[in-house]
Amino acid sequence: MKITQSGLVKVSISVLFARLVQKPAFHALTLSQFLLTELTYQILYLRLQQEELMVVI
Question: How many CB atoms lie within 10 A of CB 26?
């Protein structure tokens, strides 16, 4: 279930990103903020996965 959830999150982020980029009045600042948020989310998610792996081991 966790794998499915992360997959769905990645797909929804990709779809959202594609929709935002298609808009002609899309600002570079908004893009950088979006990417920064995405990076932060990915890093936090990876840290959580590592902690779960350590607990399992």
Answer: 13
Would you state the structure tokens that stand for residue 42, as one six-digit string? 């990915």
Q: How far apart are CA 9 and CA 56, in angstroms?
A: 24
Query: Which residue stretches of 1-57 are H helix?
Result: 2-22, 28-56
* Residue spans per domain, the chain: 2-56
Please check the confidence at residue 5 and state whether its pLDDT lies above 80: no
Each residue's pLDDT tens digit, 41-55: 888 888 877 776 666
Q: Give pLDDT tens digits for 19-30.
A: 766 665 556 667
Length of the chain equals 57
Gap between the Cα atoms of 52 and 47, Å rounded: 9
CB count within 10 Å of CB 17 equals 14
